[in-house]
Design goal:
The protein is an alpha/beta fold. It has helices at about 45-50, 70-80, 95-105, 110-115, 135-145, 165-180, 190-195; strands at about 5-15, 15-30, 30-35, 60-65, 80, 150-155, 180-185, 200-205, 205-210. It is built from seven helices and nine strands. The strands form two sheets. It has a six-stranded mixed beta sheet with strand order 5-6-7-3-8-9, sandwiched between helices. It has a three-stranded antiparallel beta sheet with strand order 2-1-4, with helices on one face. Helix 5 packs parallel to helix 6 (about 165-180). The longest helix is centred in the last third of the chain and has 16 residues, at about 165-180.
Length: about 220
Amino acid sequence: MSAVIEVQHLNKSFGDLVAVEDVSFTVEEGEIFGIVGPRGSGKTTIVECLEGLRAHDSGSIQVLGRDPRQERAEVTRRIADRLQDGRLPDRLAVAEALTLYGSFYRDPADWRELMAALGLTTSSRTREGAGTSSSRHRLSVAFADVGRPQVAVLDGLTTGQDPRSRRETWAAVESVRASGVTILLVTPFRAEAEQLCDRVALMDRGRLTVTGPPAR
């Protein structure tokens, strides 16, 4: 396997606050790689730098062989994200939103087939706020996958879910990986990392403490 994400000696500060300090890791093609740690440990800052949303102070980042800050448009076409607390406009129907999101990509997936595979209703009138917490979270996976990305970034995917809904969302994530997508999963939940991830990077107060299989 080849690395699709390479992070070397990444540093990012906000004034006197050191958010990320000397973090290095790689994500291999086809795996589910987890960034795991409590709130405030630097997980989302790393993701924002990976996606070119935020400039890092020093170090290097390569996503699919490209610098996400210098070549953001090309990287954006190849990755999909579900950032923490991301939501659709309240009045936008799911079908409308999926069609719109798909139009941003060169070869979008058929959103009806995608929703069916995730066990979701294909009614064109359905809105994001309708249904259970589980269906809304699985719907966010559909948005991450509609552009046929090479990499999907899922941040805080099951926050607020009950155990049953969380298991249903995990199954949706595994189905996305089975389609050939490399997944970067950002989570504070140990059980989620153990269930889904091939490897994890454990973060604590901005530093990476260990990288390896969940059992380690």
